[in-house]
Design a protein that fits this description.
This protein folds into two domains: 251 residues, 3-Layer(aba) Sandwich (Aspartate Aminotransferase, domain 2), CATH 3.40.640; 126 residues, Alpha-Beta Complex (Aspartate Aminotransferase, domain 1), CATH 3.90.1150. It is built from 14 helices and twelve strands. It has a seven-stranded mixed sheet, with helices on both faces. Strands 8-9-12-11-10 form a five-stranded mixed sheet. Helix 6 links the parallel strand 4 and strand 5. Helix 12 packs across helix 14. The protein is globular. The structure holds pyridoxal-5'-phosphate. Pyridoxal-5'-phosphate (PLP) binds next to helix 3 and helix 4.
């Protein structure tokens, strides 16, 4: 089989067929150097390497793998997912217009609202589960510059129809950026549906071991004005990962498919089991046939529905916290996409104006034995049943 038509799981396992031809190493090296020497003609010995704020060779394996996984032309790593988000919004001039989901990852929502308010970017918010709501959010604006999408949205698991949203973006001439952190390129490739840029918190499933903070942007077009502005911003402001983080990220990526497929099949099992439990009033997971986002998710998620789900328990905040507190195996804490399962009471950690229900718990499923996880959830739920 030619290297050109290998499956993406082979691509990640082999780190894009990495081989260091000078040493024979099959694992990329770490280059901690921040600066790179010039020759006697004062030319860089390797033109790609001048100073680490432009590029460091340690970034390349992870950037190449992520770009190929997403079907993009290029990838740029950032020091965090939020730094990647910020690099996109920094390209918008004062007076421009952006549309964002009214419910999404709280850190993005909070930062974008404050940033746009401060620099005079008009912001409209739409219901992520309705493209009609996106269209309504654009009405009355002569021009929309950016449409931000997060699907499934965190933690309410709203599903946005990517193809329909991209058609809207093309019609109004907006750049469409998709936060693909929760879906992962294992299940969804937004560029295939018309997205211009894909954003990742590589802190989550891409690295997968809860030991690296990093972000990534992938472009469908290396020559787009937005992409050039993003690279300029990264070079200028310097929100790059350290070389050790970039190295750990390429290592974590090697097992992406094993981890994410396992976590998603466990999430599917747990969603179905939670759905049957008498102490649970609602399960939000696009893999459930009863979920309002199921049909749209089926069109754009292939092979699984992700490792993130939310469920609501009978009662309120007290009951939700009682369940989280009674878990023995599952750890209470924020984040997702790691090998260990985490549960979080979002209402407690979001500010008072949050619209997250008090009885909601978000479960970020890891790769443990599915039955062990279910036994832990069941014994905790039985305490409030
Ligand atoms: C974690 C997360 C972010 C922010 O990424 P950091 O790496 O924590 O800065 C953005 N979007 C989503 C969906 C996330 O889960």
């Amino acid at each position: 089989m030619s290297i050109h038509n290998i499956h993406p799981s082979t691509l990640v396992a082999k780190a894009d067929d990495f081989l260091d031809t000078t040493t024979g190493a099959i694992v990329p090296a770490i280059h901690p150097s921040t600066t790179f020497a010039r020759n006697d003609q004062y030319e860089p010995i390797n033109p790609a390497n001048v100073y680490t704020r432009d590029c460091n060779p340690t970034f390349i394996p992870a950037e190449n793998v992520i770009a190929k996984l997403e079907g993009g032309e290029g990838c740029a790593l950032f020091s965090s997912g939020m730094a990647a988000v910020a690099a996109v919004f920094y390209t918008l001039p004062t007076g421009s217009h952006a549309a964002i989901p009214e419910s999404m990852y709280w850190g993005v929502l909070y930062w974008v609202r404050a940033f746009c308010d401060r620099v005079g970017i008009q912001l409209s918010e739409y219901d992520p589960s309705s493209v009609a709501s996106l269209e309504a959010a654009l009405e009355g604006h002569a021009k929309t510059d950016l449409i931000w999408v997060e699907t499934p949205s965190n933690p309410l698991m709203g599903v946005t129809d990517l193809t329909a949203a991209a058609a809207v973006a093309i019609r109004v001439g907006a750049v469409m950026v998709v936060d693909n952190t929760a879906a992962t390129p294992v299940f969804t490739k937004p560029i295939e549906h018309g997205a211009h840029i894909v954003m990742h918190s590589a802190t989550k499933s891409l690295n997968g071991h809860s030991d690296v903070l990093a972000g990534a942007l992938v472009t469908a077009d290396l020559n787009s004005a937005t992409w050039k502005a993003i690279l300029q911003e990264r070079h200028g402001a310097g929100a790059l990962p350290g070389s050790f983080e970039a190295w750990l990220l390429q290592r974590g990526l090697r097992t992406l498919y094993l981890r994410v497929e396992r976590a998603a099949s466990t999430a599917q099992q747990l969603a179905e089991q939670l759905h049957q439990h008498s102490a649970v009033s609602l399960v939000r997971y696009p893999g459930l046939v009863s979920d309002p986002g199921h049909l749209t998710a089926k069109k754009q998620m292939h092979g699984g529905f992700g490792s993130l789900l939310s469920f609501e328990v009978n009662g309120g905040r007290r009951e939700a916290l009682a369940v989280a507190g009674a878990l023995q195996l599952i750890v209470s804490g924020t984040s997702l996409g790691g090998v260990e399962t985490l549960i979080e009471h979002r209402y407690t950690v979001e500010p008072p104006e949050t619209e997250i229900p008090e009885n909601l718990l978000r479960l970020a499923v890891g790769i443990e034995d599915p039955d062990d996880l279910w036994h832990d959830l069941k014994q905790a739920l039985n305490k409030i049943a």
